[in-house]
């Protein structure tokens, strides 16, 4: 009787009980681990389903939005290609750059004529800068240089810059039409003289 009530700790006869105690938790822990595995497996499936659901939902939403976008075509509001710029007396001699930003043109006036240069480099289409101190147009992209009449003389530009159509209306206002341009081949800037709309005689 006294043996059966003996304290378990430190007693030699308690060794088998310890083994059982260590064996039991390992079985339980194995069961718990199995349960956890099952739970994490379910979670993984749930997470995977969630991802797939989001993927499909995102794909369908994107396609639906693209479909809707089809019914609302993008409209770009560009400035009119035909516009008035004032009278010949509004311009001094030389190059006037005040319409460069709004209409991408320069107005040039000399003692005989007024004409409008399209501010587009004939190499690859950049907008050259007017260098007042050097009296030249210089393209920032590849270095083409043009004289004050837009005639190329350095760099890769293949020909002079184009000129836009100019006419005077009955009130003496200059009307520019940038949808009509005149071109001159390399070294043949006198070709501009052949086009009445390429300048206004003043
Ligand atoms: S675009 Fe002007 S030099 Fe090339």
Give a description of the structure:
This protein is α+β, with helices and mostly antiparallel strands and 202 residues long. It has two domains: 56 residues; 120 residues, Rieske Iron-sulfur Protein (3-layer Sandwich). Helices cover 29% and strands 23% of the residues. Strands 1, 2, 3, 4, 9, 10 and 11 form a seven-stranded antiparallel beta sheet that branches. A four-stranded antiparallel beta sheet has the order 5-6-7-8, with no helix packed on it. Strand 9 and strand 10 form a beta hairpin. The termini are far apart. The N terminus is likely disordered. FE2/S2 (inorganic) cluster binds next to loops.
Topology:
Elements (H helix, E strand, L loop, with lengths): L14 H55 L12 E5 L7 E3 L3 H4 L1 E5 L3 E6 L10 E3 L4 E3 L6 E2 L5 E3 L8 E6 L5 E9 L17 E2 L1
Antiparallel strand pairs: 1-10, 2-3, 3-4, 4-9, 4-11, 5-6, 6-7, 7-8, 9-10
FE2/S2 (inorganic) cluster (FES) binds next to loops.
What CATH first level of the largest domain would be assigned?
Answer: Mainly Beta
SSE topology string = HEEHEEEEEEEEE
Cα separation of the termini: 136 Å
Structurally, the number of domains stands at 2
Hetero groups bound?
FE2/S2 (inorganic) cluster
Largest β-sheet summary: 7 strands, antiparallel
CATH fold label of the largest domain: Rieske Iron-sulfur Protein
What is the radius of gyration? 42 Å
* Total number of beta strands: 11
